[in-house]
TrEMBL record:
It is found in: Membrane. Belongs to the L6 tetraspanin family. It is a multi-pass membrane protein. Signal peptide: none annotated. It comes from Erpetoichthys calabaricus (Rope fish). One of its GO terms (cellular component) is membrane. This is Transmembrane 4 L six family member 4. Pfam families: L6_membrane. The keyword Ubl conjugation does not apply. Keywords: Membrane, Transmembrane, Transmembrane helix. InterPro entries: L6_membrane. The keyword tRNA processing does not apply. The chain crosses the membrane at residues 12-34, 46-67, 87-108, 157-176.
Length: 202
């Protein structure tokens, strides 16, 4: 198994998901696709920045580490064959753990937002949360309680669902990299064995 190549594929996938999660979180600041006049009208969970921080910023570091594993000098650790590659794979386990934490944060925030429902204009005086324990998910007749912003329910539901799914995928990929990193630490990388076995020749 080429653990370095596998890590690179994971890194490329994570970069794509980082961009999508960040965009989804930014779009949530425009409920129903419109600009609100007051920030307090935006659903509270949007301000937790699950897609920007959890699935975005915290995920950048693991993704970049995974991308660079394939090109690490596998013979560059105190002259020991494959030691450098093994150490790099061990380090990737730590960053993969950070990725799991970030993805988990985004997943929890998204799940809580979906269950709570969006903040919307429910009467002539104020914005509020008219739904409880996700009851609006199976009963679409309750959606009429939200007067404004228009289409805020499908807008928030779609974007938070996307964040939920993508953060779940990120968590799975990072968990897989933990296993991949353990294999790389214990067994080395297939390309590493080849180059070190030929005294560093490519």
């Amino acid at each position: 198994m080429c653990t370095g190549s596998c890590a690179k594929c994971i890194g490329i996938t994570l970069i794509t998901l980082i961009i999508l999660c960040t965009l989804a979180n930014i779009l949530l600041f425009f409920p129903g696709g419109s600009v609100v006049q007051e920030n307090q009208y935006i659903t509270d969970e949007v301000w937790f920045f699950g897609g920007i921080l959890g699935s975005g910023v915290l995920m950048i570091f693991p993704a970049l580490v995974f991308l660079g594993l394939k090109n690490n000098d596998c013979c560059g650790c105190c002259g020991n064959e494959s030691c450098g590659k093994r150490f790099a794979m061990f380090t990737s386990i730590i960053f993969a753990g950070i990725g799991v934490v970030g993805a988990g944060y985004s997943f929890i925030v998204s799940a809580a937002a979906i269950n709570r429902g969006p903040k919307c204009f429910v009467n002539s005086t104020s914005y509020d949360y008219p739904f409880h324990n996700g009851n609006y998910l199976s009963n679409h007749s309750l959606w009429d309680q939200c007067k404004e912003p228009k289409n805020v329910i499908p807008w928030n539901l779609t974007l938070f669902s996307m964040l939920l799914i993508m953060s779940g995928v990120q968590a799975v990929l990072c968990a897989f990299q933990i296993i991949n990193g353990l294999l790389g630490t214990l067994c080395g990388d297939c390309t590493c064995c080849g180059c070190c076995g030929n005294n560093g020749a490519v």
